[in-house]
Amino acid sequence: MQFNTLARLLYSPRLLLSSWQTGQLASTQCSGLHITTSLNFAETVPVKPKRPVNPYIRYVQGVRSSLASANPKASPTEISKLAAVKWHSLDQASKTKYEEEYKREQAVWLQKNAKYLSQLTDVQKEEIKLERQQRNEEKIKREQKRLLKELGRPKRPMNGFFLFCLQNKPIHKLSKEDNQMHMKNLGLQWKRLSDAEKEPYNKEAEDGMKRYQEEMKKWEDKMMSSENVEAVRKKNVLLPPSRASSMAKKGGIPMLESNPTAARKQKKSPTSTTARP
User: Fold this and answer.
1) Which residues contact 90 (CB under 8 A, 6 or more apart)?
2) In whole numbers, what is the pLDDT of the chain averaged over residues?
3) Of the candidates 23, 221, 63, 48, which has an alpha carbon nearest to the alpha carbon of residue 120?
4) pTM of the entire structure?
């Protein structure tokens, strides 16, 4: 993640001056990494041709509306299952028709895509690659979040400030801009509160965290005894990280044992001369 963030920064079109010394950026005045003229990357990339859908998806798209009309109470997932059943029962001649149509569009797309790729610069290709990696990482995070929700992972409690915001939330739904202003005002109000006024919220948050820790311990024990070991945290994030771990993350120092007790035992052992990286 850190490498991808750094790479996106280094390959940003706002910073790559060496590849854009002529044209729009020729007269740009720079100071360090600051550029007074911004470059709209989206306008410089040609439009990517849309890949044609395969025969099965093409068929499903054609029958979905009729299936939804015939089954108004069915969910989108149920409609997809009904379409799959109809596809499997479809005669071979009809399937061949969809396959031939797909092949014709695929041949046209291959030519358009080859032309599209030939127009991209190395900078644009790298930027597209990094954006694709970011989308994949976000997709993995969404899948992990969905899995944890299905497995019933306890929800982390809110801190004192968010409990204060929850108590003072507006009655009517606000627009995005009004909501941002409302949260800003709540932040100012929270700062003006005395410690005694904040105490009820912080106490409720503290009690909630204790319950959360107990629930997480029970839930993780349950996951460890089942086939969902991958859902359990790789390290105990409920405890504060060790000083060595924090320094390693900030300065690139080799990681030591995450368990302080084990690290102290290893340091005292006469047979051990170096800490395990």
Assistant:
1) 59
2) 76
3) 48
4) 0.47
